[in-house]
Amino acid sequence: MIARQLAETTGTTARFADNAGPEAAADPRLREQLTALSGRRLSQYSIGSGGIRLSFWGENITTPSREILIEEETVEITQPGQQARQVPGRSELTATSLLNTLDHRLSRAQINEGRLRLTFDNDLYLEVAPHRQWEAWQISSDDGLLIVCTPGGDLTIWYPTQSD
Fold first, then answer.
1. Which helix H or strand E contains 33, and what residues bound it?
2. Of 49, 61, 69, 126, which is the most buried if we count CB atoms within 10 A?
3. Could you state, in order of their start, the residue ranges of all structural domains in the chain?
4. Between vectors from CA 138 to CA 135 and to CA 140, what angle results, nearest 5°?
5. How far apart are CA 72 and CA 36, in angstroms?
6. How distant, in Å, are the alpha carbons of 14, 34, 125, 128, 133 from that of 117?
7. Other C-beta atoms within 10 Å of 113: how many?
8. What average pLDDT does this structure show over 40-55?
């Protein structure tokens, strides 16, 4: 599958994935990238026909901005003191939960069998399951990172490009 091997084509330069398939989740560099995302403030969010976009801007000029795009139609939200609920991504509950989470820090980002779980410091939990037919979510940054949850829950990862 081309999407699993090729992230972007610019002119004649192609960039191939650094890791793909079941072994990508065990790559220690993945844990480093998730740790780097933790502690970031939710700077902006949007909900549209393309999904939910969560933006974590760099807190200084040397820190790359990161973004999570959720394309799966259903998410699981757990609000403080409440049971987890499966809701449409484009729902009032999703919108108000994220509005109440603006400027709060992401305490932890976890990936387990293609399932993305985000924990915020206001005790909001957002979980996205993989989809068997399409990409459910992705994490990207302006330094070249791209983590894609491919159909079925495997990951394809392009790590940040190293500058010479």
1. helix 28-37
2. 126
3. 22-158
4. 150
5. 24
6. 31, 11, 7, 7, 20
7. 13
8. 95
Amino acid (1-letter code) at residue 47: I
- Of 44, 55, 13, 24, the C-alpha closest to 141 is 55
pLDDT of residue 37: 92
Model pTM score: 0.87
Q: Which of 132, 160, 162 is nearest to 7 (CA)?
A: 160
Other beta carbons within 10 angstroms of residue 60's beta carbon come to 5
- Which residue, among 70, 160, 82, has the nearest Cα to 117 in the 3D structure? 70
Flag whether pLDDT at 10 surpasses 50.
no
pLDDT band at 156 (very low <50, low <70, confident <90, very high): very high
Structure tokens at 87: 């809701």
Contact between 42 and 104 under an 8 Å Cβ cutoff? The reply is: yes
